[in-house]
Specification:
Blueprint lengths: L1 H14 L4 E4 L2 E8 L7 E7 L6 E8 L3 H18 L6 H12 L7 E8 L4 E7 L5 E2 L2 E2 L17 E6 L5 E5 L16 H9 L4 H12 L4 E8 L6
Antiparallel strand pairs: 1-2, 2-11, 3-4, 4-5, 5-6, 6-9, 7-8, 7-10, 10-11
Helix pairs in contact: 1-2, 2-3
Length: 229
C-alpha cells in the first residue's frame, strides 16, 4: 500500500503543470498542495499550437485518497485527449461528463476556460467555485458537477481580460481550511488575500498555516500590459 501511494504521488507530479510559466501575453502561476498523500484537485494549462490561445481546466473530484487520485488521472487524460480536437470549454466539459457517467459515485466540479490571444475569455462551469477577476468573484451561473446526469447543461460566461487584469482560480479547499478552534477560513478571507495581490504560493502558505483540511489548488493568470514573446 505504501508503494502504491508513493507511485500515485509520482504520477500526480508528472501530470501537473509547472508552477510558473509565461505564455504570449499571459503570466501564469499555480500552486497545488494536497491534504493527503494523493490529492483530488486537478488542473491543466494547455497552449494552442497555432492560434495563440490558452486552455485552462481546473477541478475537484469527490472523495480523497487513492480513489480520488485515480479519477484525477482519468480526467487529466481525457482533458488532454479532448483538447487535441477542440478548445471549446463547453464541448470539453461535455466530453468529461460523458467519461464519468455510469461510474459509481464519480463526480467532479470543474471550470474550463479558453483565453484567446486578444484576451477574450470563454468560461464554462460545472459546479466549481467562481474565479476572482481583479479580486472580485466573477458572476457566473451555477451548474451541476460532472458525472451527475447525462446530457447536463453547463453554464457559459464570456468576458474580456484587459492588460494587467488578474484572474485567480481556486478550489474550495481554501475556504474550508479550519483552525484549532473549529473556525473556517471562509470565502471573505480568501477574497481578501486575492485583493492584496498575494502570489499563489503566499496564499497557499496562509491557508496551510491557518489549518489545511482539503486540497489547495490556485491558478493565477495575469494579462501582460505588453505581449511577452
Amino acid at each position: 500500500m505504501a508503494l502504491d501511494v508513493k507511485q500515485a504521488q509520482e504520477v500526480q507530479k508528472v501530470i501537473l503543470p509547472e508552477a510558473h510559466t509565461i505564455f504570449p501575453g499571459l503570466v501564469v502561476e499555480s500552486e497545488y498542495r494536497p491534504a493527503r498523500q494523493v490529492g483530488g484537485d486537478f488542473f491543466q494549462i494547455l497552449p494552442h499550437p497555432t492560434d495563440g490561445s490558452l486552455l485552462v481546466v481546473a477541478g475537484d473530484v469527490a472523495g480523497k485518497g487513492l480513489q480520488a487520485g485515480m479519477l484525477v488521472a482519468l480526467l487529466v487524460g481525457a482533458i488532454r485527449s479532448t483538447a487535441e480536437t477542440t478548445s471549446d470549454p463547453q464541448a470539453l466539459l461535455n466530453a468529461l461528463n460523458r467519461r464519468l457517467i455510469g461510474r459509481n459515485e464519480a463526480y467532479a466540479t470543474c471550470l474550463a476556460l479558453n483565453i484567446s490571444a486578444d484576451g477574450a475569455v470563454t468560461l464554462a462551469n460545472a459546479g466549481h467555485v467562481p474565479p476572482y477577476l481583479n479580486g472580485e468573484p466573477l458572476a457566473i451561473e451555477g451548474a451541476l458537477p460532472l458525472g451527475a446526469i447525462e446530457g447536463a447543461e453547463f453554464s457559459v460566461t464570456r468576458f474580456q481580460l484587459k492588460p494587467n487584469d488578474r484572474l485567480v482560480l481556486a478550489s474550495d479547499g481554501l475556504a474550508e481550511a479550519m483552525n484549532a478552534d473549529g473556525k473556517l477560513f471562509g470565502f471573505p478571507r480568501v477574497q481578501h488575500l486575492v485583493q492584496q495581490g498575494k502570489t499563489a504560493d503566499e496564499i497557499a502558505n496562509v491557508i496551510q498555516a491557518f489549518g489545511q483540511e482539503d486540497d489547495i489548488s490556485i491558478i493565477s493568470l495575469t494579462r501582460a500590459a505588453i505581449a511577452v514573446a
